[in-house]
Amino acid sequence: MTRTLLRLRGAVALGMVAFVLFMLATGVVLWIASQGGIVPQGLWSFASTAHPVGGVSFFILGVVHIALNRKFFLSDLAMLFKKDKG
């Protein structure tokens, strides 16, 4: 595995973690507002716009992550279902 591919896989994984934390924060704001909590209008506006954008971005990074790790996944599956001959 090349160093560039390894760095790319790491960057995609870190991006996914960042988007999960971002979506968790905006989701909490939206949930508090839906439960009748007092949320400033600017924060509500930002969260209601940014949360779907974060979700789509996370989905795109997930697809890239699967594409980058497909070979490893298939190799692991082959090892799991391999019949032991001895």
Largest sheet: none
Distance between the termini: 31 Å
**Which H/E pattern describes the elements?**
HHH
Name the poorly predicted regions. Answer: none
How does the helix and strand content classify structurally?
Answer: mainly alpha
Number of strands: 0
Shape: elongated
Overall pLDDT: 89
Give Rg in angstroms: 19 Å
**What share of the residues lie within helices?**
over 70%
Q: Counting H and I runs of at least 4 residues, what is the number of helices?
A: 3
Classify the beta-strand content into a percent band. Answer: under 5%
Report what the structure shows.
- By secondary structure, the chain is mainly α.
- The protein is 83% helix and 0% strand.
- It contains three helices and no strands.
- The protein has helices at 3-34, 41-68, 70-80.
- The two termini are 31 Å apart.
- The mean pLDDT is 89.
